């Protein structure tokens, strides 16, 4: 068993993709498996935390001992995040939130068009930025950044722009790492510090991330 570094702490984690309906049978989503977020939740439980796991549709089982909240859309994710974040010591945004949703969801199945179909999309809310900008009961806020180039610069940009306390960056252009894989490598950034976590299982990395977080709560 692990040292109970997070005993008495409540951690809320978002995980998986969101799913944005276009009509009753179609949606926009992405390839997020939810693995990293679920491993973070598992690690937090192992370190003694009370864990809320807000997840989009995934095919993996939740770790034992978490409070699982299922959502589909970014708007639903925001609603739940704003309920749980103010009751949490830390909030970790690991979900791959769809950046856009349909401006209007068709009530009936859309019919085939000739050649082209134009969809109007509107921007989804930035969930983690909303949490990080809470003025009362703001939790320690941790984001993730999946990048294919210039990882450090983009990650540090998001740390500042979204008003986060910490960001975990991974290079998703590296074969077999990140999306859908059991392995990952992360660089953790704070406003005045950084730490490299080299290639490992998502499970081991999750324990390292939660250990670093515990030091700062
Ligand atoms: O801007 P980008 O999507 O790269 O930022 C990634 C971070 O922001 C992740 O922590 C992700 O969970 C969070 N995010 C969010 N809501 C969005 C978009 C991203 O919480 N609409």
Summarize this, please?
The protein is of the alpha/beta class and 217 residues long.
Helical content class: 10-25%
Quick one: how many beta strands?
A: 12
Shape: globular
Ligand identities: cytidine-5'-monophosphate
Separation of the first and last Cα atoms:
21 Å
Number of helices: 5
Q: Rg to the nearest angstrom?
A: 18 Å
Helix/strand order = EEEHEEHEEEHEHEEEH
Strand content: 25-35%
Decide which structural class fits the backbone: alpha/beta
Low-confidence stretches: none
Mean pLDDT: 95
Largest sheet: 8 strands, mixed
As laid out across the biggest beta sheet, the strand order is 5-4-1-6-9-10-11-12
Oligomer: single chain
